[in-house]
Design a protein that fits this description.
46% of the residues lie in helices and 20% in strands. It is built from six helices and eight strands, in the order ααααααββββββββ.
Length: 263
């Protein structure tokens, strides 16, 4: 390491660095050596002291009469008169302040109006988007209603009205059955209120069993598709436990109607 430091000191880079005659790469190298090796740092400090001493010894003092000559020359120069700035009238300052306030108020007003218009545009855009969604939804609903209407008005569609017996006098349900396209629709018109532990359930009767067509709910006041049962003999509605039953409780029957059979 001593040989490395000795070689560096003999290279003269430290002297060149002191007088600012090194390249950026050389300067970086010198600074690295100064920070890493105490001997280099010591030599650097000594050279700095020598350089400062040389600069002082070689400095030239000005003649003693120089100061008097300079002061005499200044006294002989004409004094430049500086015209004092004109005082700004008070009314001008007030007018400037008023103008600034009006400008600030106008800018704020325009900014608020722009924000209001921007918010209105966004609101209108959202409303248009929602309106398009509503239109599409309404078109789908209208299309569905038209299809159901066509089914109801089909000459092949047969209408059956189920009315309640003494256990449910106000019950009324309409069934629309089309044996050609094999579709069935149910319209729940009225259902007497039951306890929370009971429900109305609809059945289709075959020769040897009863087929579940689903639970009837007064809140579902629209045409409802139910399974089409081939060779069904009749439709009936019974009162069953809440959630429905796998087998019809015929003793709790509240409505029944026979279905037409083709000859």
């Amino acid at each position: 390491m001593k040989n490395k430091v000795h070689t560096f000191l003999e290279s003269g880079l430290l002297d060149k660095y002191l007088i600012g005659d090194t390249s950026p790469i050389e300067s970086a190298k010198v600074e690295a050596y100064i920070s890493q090796y105490p001997d280099v740092k010591e030599e650097y400090d000594i050279l700095q002291d020598h350089l400062e001493l040389v600069a002082r010894t070689q400095s030239i003092s000005p003649p003693s009469h120089s100061l008097d000559a300079i002061l005499s020359a200044i006294d002989k120069k004409p004094v430049v008169q500086l015209n004092p700035s004109r005082k700004i009238p008070f009314w001008f300052s007030v007018a400037a302040c008023i103008t600034a306030l009006v400008f600030a108020g106008t800018s704020y007003l325009f900014y608020n109006q722009n924000q209001i218009l921007l918010n209105e545009n966004n609101t209108i855009a959202d409303e248009i988007f929602d309106l398009r969604g509503d239109i599409n939804s309404n078109n789908d609903k209208l299309d569905n209603v038209m299809r159901q209407f066509m089914k109801l008005n089909n000459p092949e569609t047969e209408k059956y009205v189920l009315r309640g017996n003494d256990r449910a006098k106000d019950l009324k349900t309409v069934a629309y059955i089309n044996p050609v396209d094999k579709s069935s629709l149910i319209d729940v018109v009225a259902l007497p209120e039951l306890s929370e532990e009971q429900c109305y359930q609809m059945w289709a009767k075959l020769q040897d069993k009863m087929v579940n067509l689903g639970i009837l709910d007064i809140n579902d006041r629209k045409l409802k598709s139910v399974p089409y049962i081939e060779d069904a003999l009749s439709l009936s509605i019974t009162i069953e436990p809440k959630g429905g039953n796998k087998n019809a409780s015929l003793e709790n029957s509240v409505a029944q109607i026979p279905l037409k059979k083709d000859n």
